[in-house]
Amino acid sequence: MLAICFLLVCIFEFANGFHDTANAVATVIYTNSLKPRVAVIWSGLMNLLGVLLGGIAVAYALVELLPPDVLTPPNGNPAVPMLVALFGTALAWNLCTWWFGIPNSSSHCTIGALIGIAIGDSFLHARDLGHSVDWGQIWKVLRALAISPLLGFFLAGLLYLLIRFAVRMPALFTPPKPDESPNPIVRALLILTCTSVSFSHGSNDGQKSIGLIMLTIIGLMPASYAMNPDHPTDRAALAQMAQEARPLIAQYDRYSFKPDALASIDRLKMVTTPATPAQIRGDVYEILSGLRDVSANPASSSQEKQTSTRLAKALRPTVEYAPYWVRVLSALCLGVGTMVGYRRIVKTLGEGIGKQHLTPAQGAASELVGAGLIASAGYTGLPVSTTHIITSGVAGTMVAAGSGINMRMLAKIALAWLLTLPVTITVSACAFYLLN
Predict the structure, then answer these.
(1) Which of 30, 234, 370, 416 is least surrounded, with the fewest CB atoms within 10 Å of its CB?
(2) Would you indicate the residue range of the signal peptide (predicted)?
């Protein structure tokens, strides 16, 4: 079962590659700027670079959607039900939408499945939803997912209009001809935009992959990976920070984290009592949940928010990290997936969204805007969807060009977007509940 769980995460990242990363190579392949094999290899290398040079803020923004006792069960057993529910649900929905050539978001799938697991945990332990589900963190993540496609639509449309006004080059605004490469300037521009999106994808979506792999290895082998080996755990130092957090957590409690967080503080101060790495990790995450609530509470003062942020920043390195081999594995899974399944998504983006075929200017505008939005989100630690941003950007350029949108395809995409969260939340919640 443990081997199956690890295989599931690799297959999911592989599917993420041919479902999400295909958006980065769609324009250069569709316009014949690069041969498909060259494009996907180049995109894979840029993804690898983005993953290796990116941080891990986005990775653990996803991890923090789960209740601590789900990730590291108190009984010390591997978190197999969580992993099977997560990857089984997200992978099934990903493959379903890919089969029909619909640019659905792997990020959307993952976040929906994580929320479902948190809800399933509430039902499993007969707890109020506010006790197991960190609604503040969920709202922060969903807000980024909702706003980024709208920004992609309007900014890409605006950039396309600026390009059309400033650049007098007919080749930029003419749909590509089969087996005919664009002129060198257009080709260089499109390769540049592909490079930018691929690197940005690695720095944001690649971080999500890192987070999911870390979820897997921590859930399967908590004794080895629950705590950061490069940040030695000093129980006394943790206990001191926990005691400093106590009055803040005790005062502000919007989402019912106080009882668990205060119990964790009491356990950490018993430095002479033996505790497993998984138990310490669980206690640290309970305290981090309480500190997030302090920072989000409008009643807390600016000084209290600063103290909460300082303590959280000091506690996080003990439990939030990613070994180098995890970054490499993430990049390899994404890259290989891109090489296998890009064709369906390329055709949809190139010919299915607008009533006319995609032009180089439209592809460049949507990808430049997409690269900027994805990179800025990665820097701020917010998970966004490459698929949503690029697809909405292409739609924005189609509207700006006056060519119109293929309403039938748009309806299919919108239906997939609208159904993704309810379906993945429901399926993963039921799967997690039944598996337990």
Answers:
(1) 234
(2) none
